[in-house]
Amino acid sequence: MKWLIDLFTSTLGKKLMMALTGLFLISFLVIHCTINAMIFFNDGGETFSYWGHFMGTNPIIRTLEIGLVAGFLIHIIQGLLLWRANLAARPVKYSVSKAPANSTWYSRSMGLLGTLLLLFLILHTSHFWIPNRTNQFTQGEELPLYKMMFEVFSNPWIVFLYVIGCVSLFWHLLHGFASTFQSLGLNHLKYNGIISFVGTAFSIIVPLIFALMPIAVYFRWID
Amino acid sequence: MKITLKVWRQQNANSKGQFKTYVADHVSSDMSFLEMLDVLNTSLIKKGEEPIHFDHDCREGICGMCSLYINGHPHGPQQTTTCQLHMRTFKDGETITVEPWRAKAFPVIKDLVVDRTAFDRIQQAGGYVTVNTGGVPDANEIPIPKKIADEAFDAAACIGCGACVAACKNASAMLFVSAKVSQLALLPQGHAERKERVEKMVAQMDAEGFGACTNTRACEAECPKAISVTNIARMNREYFSAMFSSYEVKVGGGGE
Ligand code: SF4
Ligand code: FES
Predict the structure, then answer these.
(1) For residue B256, what pLDDT is reported?
(2) Which of A23, A166, B155, B222 could form a disulfide with B182 if both were Cys (CB 3.0 to 4.6 A apart)?
(3) Which residue of A has its CA nearest to B238?
(4) ipTM
């Protein structure tokens, strides 16, 4: 077992953990985004609620949800620990640094973007996921999420914060998506092009769809 | 040319350093950066002041000794070594800030000189091939495809200067270590110790206190020998497969 502990406490192993949980969270985004986009059917939330009910009650999905919470926790805690360790690797800073000449700002700001996303996650889960699951446990009933969405997104400040969250997600994914492959060692001239293309497209499309939800509700493009 | 220099001066590893400003008149644009410092040092010695200490050896871009973080870049604004950087790269009247490499694993010894023996210890941990010496082997005895030989040669071009560590926001040594792992992992001669090598070198790298890689690719952009981050991906692959499958032995046999 020692080898396994050595592996996951090494800098490479920690990055492996970040990459694997990162990819897992990306797969979650696909599902979350697809189901939530059902509101754009504009059928009074019928399709959305059907799938929302399925996700909230299906035993397999509920079991996977435990894995999802663990995935989030590992990604967040490991990310913060790496951020601290990396800061400590350079105790004295440079007085002049031209970092923008050799790397992109968002690749150097994954910790900051991740922290913004964490704040957003706290806000977002306290709007929907936490109250809903709490109610399910205590009352055995789901909350009317579709209706709640209209209440929450009637406040322009909340809509604004959600859009900020989506923008942070865009930058985080723009570096993170392709970065997971590099950390896993999957760098190959035959595939690098497609990885970066899919990564960029994903980083634009998913946050855009997410951002359109509070906006569409606020401006009553759907009802 | 007239150049104003802000140079980091530090008496020894334990003292607190600070920047000192010097003015160098009559700098020729054909001088290398180190020659410019030589001339400045001569004038300091004449004045009875302590000259600026900096590392250098070959002065032809192959030994990796010269360091210096110049105006926010390791080895200055060009992708080359400091000894190969010429004063014509700068403007007349420019102010140039010169700092040592900054990393926990590279402590300052004096002024601009840092201790890079951490790299030596990583190499000693596994960056070699154990062979019995003997007669010179026949050139064609071990066939190596040209593409592989080229790739290994590119990795072997690393001169161990540490600019990758200096450039990285995490002071990570991944580019250096991955180049050293790659050059041997790619060649048949390196295969016997392939797994053990990467395990030991990565463990030593972590023990030295270098940071982790966040794939910003700053190292690749600043490396004077154009070592590619492809090597880092290769090291990651080598390391994970080694950790999951390297040979373990039991007393009395029965290893896997
Ligand atoms: S990888 Fe490049 S920057 Fe790093 S030590 Fe080798 S030559 Fe220097
Ligand atoms: S002094 Fe040898 S590489 Fe610059």
Answers:
(1) 61
(2) B155
(3) A185
(4) 0.93
Tell me which residue in A10, A94, A178 faces B202 most closely, judged by beta carbons: A10
Best to test chain B binding among A2, A14, A16, A86 (most B CBs inside 10 Å): A86
Determine the number of helices (DSSP H) and then strands (DSSP E) in chain A. Answer: 10, 0
Q: Give the Cα-Cα-Cα angle A101, A106, A112 (nearest 5 degrees).
A: 125
Fold of A2-87+104-218: 3 helical TM bundles of succinate and fumarate reductases (1.20.1300)
- pTM equals 0.94
Please give the pLDDT value at position A1.
Answer: 83
Mean pLDDT of A121-143: 95
> Which residues of A, range 141-180, sit inside 8 Å of B by Cβ?
175, 178-179
SS (H, E, C) A147-215: HHHHHHCCCHHHHHHHHHHHHHHHHHHHHHHHHHHHHCCCCCHHHHHHHHHHHHHHHHHHHHHHHHHHH
Q: Which helix (H) or strand (E) holds A66?
A: helix A59-88
Among 3.40.190.10, 1.10.1060.10, 1.10.3720.10, 3.40.640.10, name the CATH number for the domain at B117-245.
1.10.1060.10
Chain A nearest C-alpha distance from B199 (Å): 9
Bridge partners of B113, per DSSP, are B110
Distance of CA B47 to the CA centre of its chain: 34
Residue B131 above 90 pLDDT? no
Distance CA B133, CA B126 (A): 18
Give the start-to-end residue ranges of the domains of chain B. Answer: 3-110, 117-245
